[in-house]
Amino acid sequence: MLTDIGTRSYVVMQREPHPIVEVEVAIADAQHPATHWGWFQKGANKPSSIWPTEELYRTCFHDSPESQEREGYGQTVRLAVRPVGRLASQ
To answer: Which structural domain range is residue 33 located in?
Structure first.
């Protein structure tokens, strides 16, 4: 799961089992296959929410992402997320 779990010291203190890794996030296309679901709030230039499955993504909305889109609050996008660089926990 992709999540912002805080600084390295926070992760060490909490004994998080997964390393922190730098990732690249792009809008999915033919060269970047979709791996995650995201939400772009109206006027934003980066996603405000990123989830690895549609089921988890849909739980972020009190009704549905489609109704939020119809109301003009933002847009669902398919994202390509891939690790880059070295592990930040090293």
So the answer is: 23-85
Question: What count of other Cβ atoms lies within 10 Å of the Cβ of residue 68?
Answer: 19
Q: 33: burial class by Cβ within 10 Å (0-12, 13-18, 19+)?
A: exposed
pTM higher than the cut 0.85: no
Residue 48 phi/psi, 5-degree rounding, is -95, -10
- 48 in any annotated domain: yes
**Phi, psi dihedrals of residue 53, rounded to the nearest 5°:** -135, 155
- What does the pLDDT look like over 49-58, one tens digit per residue? 999 999 999 9
Give 19-48 pLDDT, tens digit per residue: 677 888 999 999 999 999 999 999 999 999
- Which strand ranges, in their side-by-side order, compose the sheet holding 74-87? 21-27, 74-87, 36-41, 49-51
Tokens of 87: 């592990």
Residue 30 CA to residue 69 CA, distance in Å, equals 24
